[in-house]
Amino acid sequence: MPFMTESTEPNSQPKTDIKTAREKLKRIVDDNSFSELDRNLLPINILRFPGYDEKLKKARASSSENEAVISGFAAINKQPCIILIFEPLFMMGSMGSVVGEKITRAFELAIKKKLPVITITASGGARMQEGVYSLMQMSKTASAVYRHSQQGLLYISVLSNPTLGGVTASFASLGDIVIAEENAQIGFTGKRIIEETTRTKLSDDFQSARFIKEHGFADMVAQEEDLRPILAKLLQLHA
Amino acid sequence: MTAIEKSLKLIRHKDRPNAVDYINHIFPDFVELCGDRLSGDDPSVVGGIASFLGRPVTVIGQVKGRTLEENIKYNFSMNRPEGYRKTLRLMKQAEKFHRPVICFVDTVGAYPGIEAEENGQHIAIANNLMLMMNLQVPIISVLIGDGGSGGALALCAANEIAALENAVLSVISPKACANILWKDSSRDIEAAQMLKMTANDLKSMRIIDEVILETNQGAHDNPFIVAENIRMYLEKCLNKYKNMPVKKLVELRNEKFRKIGEYATASEL
């Protein structure tokens, strides 16, 4: 009987060349338009989970970030928005209290400023080391999306490699428009766990961006280099 | 024996009462309603309507089996997307008829299967999390046994959440956690200890509002008393929300989750 239900660690390393979330962000938003929010929010080892402090230290060193998501004001082709991008080098982009809080604050600020929100996720899911606090960030972020949506504001979700578990099962699936990035693995349960549970070898296509679109869970599949023009167009159509 | 060891032992006890037992006891006139009106019916989630305190309510429960036959029927309590969609359909129906929603949470987790992925397990859960936030009637959730991650959370976007004394809620199953930490899933008790997932842990972290007592030997020892304790809790909650304006009800539900999270800000360090 399987007990593992959600992936907290993706099965494979991102297939694309290693580059940081900030570099990716730079290619999407207008030059010098990004103004970061909530960089001062820092994770704490609230459960005194063994090894978490060291993991955080390593994550900070390898990613040069304070946490797994970067949020801020930006413009794309001169159209203002609030944008969030996940840094998978920081503990596989997992969502704990800080990530949940930053997402929630970003949506709340967007409500106040009447701005669209764009999220670019790359996450293994909820962060195990913060236990049930991480789990509850799923509800918290879903509530933030709902309140933003109630105001008639636009939310575009871009699913990058990989987007799994507690992140696909909360805010990232709730966009008005969902874009699956080419080469992304997208799903709820990680592939390896499904293979173990069902004792089946899954095809390479399973949970691919195309698979996600074919099953009706994304509006389109996009290459990374096309994200900027697509997002610009979509923002313009909702201006 | 530590608290978590005791809890895990008791929630896996072969005679532990499940959602169907509590529903039968607390809601004797329960009428089951089936199907998600889209692609199927997931028997691992039972839903329907009944009267409570002289008024109609919608009741939903994730069901754990006790025999092999039941376990197959209830898919070892692992719900499929059709199951989550059924719960949402029944909640929207409850909203239409202005009746409160009562959820019994008991799942090892959402089903990690091929069809579940193909049918949008992630979207089914996400939709529950979001649309329950806006539901215009009170939602009360009671954790009665296993609380496996997102699959359990999908029935927890409630105004009030209680847990039976030995019920648990966790971001990851202890076995999976042990497997990641030590590549040894037999160390699940150790992992469970670290995850702080007992009812009392959840209460002290303010994730849940109340712990409902079981009997000393666990709920199977005297299911009648435990069902009565749940009934009294539900009565108290429904009375609390009976005359509350809808807007306030929804606001309070959203605020409840808004507050959850522990972090530092740089100036504090």
Automatic annotation (TrEMBL), chain A:
Please provide the Gene Ontology terms (biological process) for this protein. fatty acid biosynthetic process; malonyl-CoA biosynthetic process
Q: Which GO terms describe its cellular component?
A: acetyl-CoA carboxylase complex
What keywords were assigned to this record? Answer: Lipid biosynthesis, Lipid metabolism, Transferase
Question: Which ranges carry the CoA carboxyltransferase N-terminal domain?
Answer: 1-239
GO molecular function of the protein, one example? acetyl-CoA carboxylase activity
Q: Where is this region: Disordered?
A: 1-20
Q: Which SUPFAM superfamilies match?
A: ClpP/crotonase
Q: Mark out the compositionally biased spans (Polar residues).
A: 1-15
Alphabetized InterPro entries for the sequence: AcCoA_carboxyl_beta, Acetyl_CoA_COase_Trfase_b_su, ClpP/crotonase-like_dom_sf, COA_CT_N
Q: Do the record's keywords include Lipid metabolism?
A: yes
Q: What is this protein called?
A: Acetyl-CoA carboxylase carboxyl transferase subunit beta
Q: Which organism is it from?
A: Sporobacter termitidis DSM 10068
From TrEMBL, chain B:
Q: Does the keyword Heme apply?
A: no
A Gene Ontology term for the protein's cellular component: acetyl-CoA carboxylase complex
Please tell me the species this chain comes from.
Sporobacter termitidis DSM 10068
Q: What is the lineage of its organism?
A: Bacteria, Bacillati, Bacillota, Clostridia, Eubacteriales
What keywords appear on the UniProt entry? ATP-binding, Fatty acid biosynthesis, Fatty acid metabolism, Lipid biosynthesis, Lipid metabolism, Nucleotide-binding, Transferase
- Which pathway does it take part in? Lipid metabolism; malonyl-CoA biosynthesis; malonyl-CoA from acetyl-CoA: step 1/1
GO MF = acetyl-CoA carboxylase activity; ATP binding; carboxyl- or carbamoyltransferase activity
Task: Check the record and name the PANTHER family matching this protein.
Answer: ACETYL-COENZYME A CARBOXYLASE CARBOXYL TRANSFERASE SUBUNIT ALPHA, ACETYL-COENZYME A CARBOXYLASE CARBOXYL TRANSFERASE SUBUNIT ALPHA, CHLOROPLASTIC
Question: Pfam families given for it?
Answer: ACCA (PF03255)
The reply to whether Transmembrane helix figures as a keyword in the UniProt entry is no
User: Any one Gene Ontology biological process term?
Assistant: malonyl-CoA biosynthetic process
Q: What is this protein called?
A: acetyl-CoA carboxytransferase
Q: Where is the CoA carboxyltransferase C-terminal domain?
A: 1-240
**Could you say which EC number(s) this protein's record lists?**
2.1.3.15
What this protein catalyses is: N(6)-carboxybiotinyl-L-lysyl-[protein] + acetyl-CoA = N(6)-biotinyl-L-lysyl-[protein] + malonyl-CoA
